Amino acid sequence: MSDTSAPSDNGVAVANIGVVGLAVMGSNLARNLASREGNTVAIYNRSREKTDQLLADHPEAQFVPAYSYEEFAASLAKPRTAIIMVKAGAGTDAVIQALTEVFEPGDIIVDGGNALFTDTIRREKAVRETGINFVGAGISGGEEGALTGPSIMPGGPEESWVTLGPILRSIAAVAPDGEPCVTHVGTDGAGHFVKMVHNGIEYADMQLIAEAYDLIRRGTGKTPAEIADIFAEWNTGELESYLIEITAEVLRQVDAATGRPLVDVILDQAGAKGTGAWTVQTALSLGVPVSGIAEATFARSLSSHPEQREAAASLPGPDEDFRVADADAFIEDVRQALFASKIVAYSQGFDEIRAGAAEYGWNIDLGAISKIWRAGCIIRAQFLNRIADAYAETPDLPVLMTAPYFAEALTSGQAAWRRVVVAATQAGIPSPAFSSSLAYYDGIRADRLPAALVQGQRDFFGAHTYKRIDKPGTFHTLWSGDRTEIEAEDTH
Ligand code: NBP
């Protein structure tokens, strides 16, 4: 922390970093920055109140306040470096425009909001024209992470990393091995792309945990508090993660007003801010099957249509109530099914990053990505070390779940996984993430798929042609008439 005073007092550019946007994320990030040795933080917010409030609440941070973009630019030492933490979308564009008018070539503008990566690509291109560096940085960990140490996924030009790297390393979460959870992900939109997939994986992980809870509760009759103990126990093994840990806390919580488990008084309609949908939309464009993430996103949508759910509530399910004979054995099966499905969800997510990197020309180190998610972010887990190991051993691994550690876990867990999906299906308990993950597993490992029949159908109605297993070329069958096969003309 510096003991220098504001430039409005003496006209000197004293801050090495600035934050624009002082709502919950920006103010916490500014406090985090100010608490690190060597940082002096300039702050600016569109409406003056938030700036004054932050100054009043945290004199220890010795912020350098600015009340105009000109004052903000004047308070920053060169190259000027500013992190924008405003509402994603039009607000971000407005702030970038204002900063480009007061910054100079070589300065750095960082967008730390949740921007769509294609917006970041567009913005980076436009800002580059001015000679200013633009960095889209995914920041994960919510308000607590912003204050104490988030996982940071910056994209942007390599040269910006020279100035920005040490600053971001100073505020990032620290993994158990001492490594800061930040790396230069790749150029332009790479950072926001990776943050988007992080959030998609988070959706899948949360849905899988919710399905595990539902199956145990309905299959064994255990109370939320008893299931909290099960999750706490799971958190000591291979499932150890922040999401499992907080699930135990949520399930243990009792509602003060009613005395009932809080989970039973929370309305069962899950919200979403859109990053799950972006992950799935992008995966569809890239042709990457992220079925676990997609089902998790759809499960939230399904839950949020009360009028449809009410209309469908009279449709029949299985006649008999679901109650397992051996509760302990079933719970262990669910644990194994959860781990297997989780491996699939992460494998699919990393597949999307691999495909995105190929499409957009980013050189993304997948092992480094798994490492920066080990602390600070919502999906932080022990398990991510295994992903780092897998990519360290085989950097061009085509499918993450085929790495030895994961293949062994799937081999030993698959019987339990199938039993759980069968039980859920027979009991009429929705388990879209469990069952779609298993279907992906069976699809990707299959020797032969019915895609051959789909190709036949496509050729029948649309002359879309097909390839054969026994000779090269592209073929079309004359389906009416004598049904002979001809080699399609566009093959050579
Ligand atoms: P919000 O997303 O609620 O945005 C509020 C801030 O945006 C205020 O400072 C507001 O200024 C400013 N702003 C707006 Br709105 N339009 C503006 C404009 N045209 N020009 C200048 N400033 C403008 O804040 P947040 O929840 O702190 O989140 C900040 C960013 O971080 C978002 O992109 C969010 O998606 C991302 N993020 C949030 C979380 C989280 O847990 N909340 C986690 C990870 C990432 P005002 O005070 O003058 O209205």
From TrEMBL:
Keyword NADP set for record: yes
Main EC class the enzyme belongs to: oxidoreductase
Catalysed reactions, semicolon-separated: 6-phospho-D-gluconate + NADP(+) = D-ribulose 5-phosphate + CO2 + NADPH
Record pathway: Carbohydrate degradation; pentose phosphate pathway; D-ribulose 5-phosphate from D-glucose 6-phosphate (oxidative stage): step 3/3
Keyword set, alphabetical order: Gluconate utilization, NADP, Oxidoreductase, Pentose shunt
Pfam families in the record: 6PGD, NAD_binding_2
Superkingdom of the source species: Bacteria
This enzyme's EC code(s): 1.1.1.44
Annotated 6-phosphogluconate dehydrogenase C-terminal domain residues: 191-480
Role description: Catalyzes the oxidative decarboxylation of 6-phosphogluconate to ribulose 5-phosphate and CO(2), with concomitant reduction of NADP to NADPH.
Subunit and partners: Homodimer.
Family recorded in the similarity comment: Belongs to the 6-phosphogluconate dehydrogenase family.
NCBIfam families: gnd, PRK09287.1
Protein name per UniProt: 6-phosphogluconate dehydrogenase, decarboxylating
Source organism of this protein record: Microbacterium marinilacus
